[in-house]
Amino acid sequence: MDKFGGIAEFVATVEAGSFAQAAQRLGMTPSGVGKAVSRLETRLGTQLLRRSTRRQLVTESGAECYQKFRHFLQDLNAMEAVSEPEKPMQGTLRLHLPPALAREFVMPALPNFYNKYPGITLQITVRNDSIDLIEEDVDLTVRFGSVNGANIISRPVGAMQYIVACSPAYALTSGMPMEPEELLRHNCLRFYSRQIGRPRKWIFTQNGRRRELTVAGNLILNNTDALIEAAIGGIGIVQVPLYAAQSALQDGRLISLLEPFRAAQMEVNAIYSVTQRASLKINAFVEFLRDALTPCPSAPRPHEDQTAPPGPEPRQSMSSFMLASE
């Protein structure tokens, strides 16, 4: 008798919420997952799940077993990884990346990853949204800001500077704010966060402290690239990640504003399920991301012969879980 049979299926069902989702994750049929869990329940002499037509709910004993089984699988994966340290990594790694991050950092560095890990196939979804790892069948995603959750692991891979910018045409017709408060008199183009259900506040460092400012304007978008294009067109002022606006700043389509009040850097995190804790492929890609995101670019000055006063030392800034990827 297989003493461990049904454990992986049970853990996957708890995390995915249904036999169907667990089956997709494990490469099995829903009936196969259900039968494996039923055999496990028979062996343990207790009901782990309450079945319904669409979802499977965890019983009290099932919740207790889930925690123990989850740690058991993590330890088992770790032991398997140690037992074959020299075996070349193979298989598919499913990733979800923000478009601008993928374009500016990951894609240019990708040959370095394949030179080191030729046996790994990367299946990358490039999209501007937050996702559920289980529902989307994704191994790793990248998000900005801090991330919390009982069943996920968050590992910092870099930090991104946010800048405030506008087009030369807008600055000519509407003027350039010299302090954050002056933004209240300008047309500010805002990023809509699906998670918090409203446009994000703008963040600055003023008198050594982090400050949030609620700005207003006539355009709200959920895509950073679209915000930058709107700013280039002269519609208003934006606060966006520096890496996304770098080329527009370098060729003069945008000019940087309020540099002495530049906000603290926002942490970039690789996010994956706790069940992937010992995955060598995950660890390899996390290290690759750290290399690809270092160093981060610095904002070019509006004029080469003019240097703005230095801003306060940046500090790490953490935002809420499920912050929409940019």
Top keywords for this entry?
326 residues, Arc Repressor Mutant, subunit A, D-Maltodextrin-Binding Protein, domain 2, 6-stranded mixed β-sheet, 5-stranded mixed β-sheet, 10 helices, elongated
Task: Give a description of the structure.
This protein has helices at 7-16, 19-26, 30-44, 60-83, 99-116, 133-136, 168-174, 224-232, 242-250, 280-292, and strands spanning 49-51, 56-58, 91-97, 120-126, 140-144, 152-160, 162-166, 188-193, 198-199, 202-206, 209-213, 220-221, 237-241, 255-257, 266-273. The chain has 326 residues and is α/β, with parallel strands linked by helices. It folds into three domains: 7-83, Winged helix-like DNA-binding domain superfamily/Winged helix DNA-binding domain (Arc Repressor Mutant, subunit A, Orthogonal Bundle); 91-158 and 267-292, D-Maltodextrin-Binding Protein, domain 2, CATH 3.40.190.10; 162-263, D-Maltodextrin-Binding Protein, domain 2, CATH 3.40.190.290. Strands 7, 8, 9, 12, 13 and 14 form a six-stranded mixed β-sheet that branches. Helix 1 (7-16) packs across helix 3 (30-44) and helix 5 packs across helix 10. The chain is elongated, with a radius of gyration of 24 Å. The model is unreliable at 298-326 (pLDDT under 50).
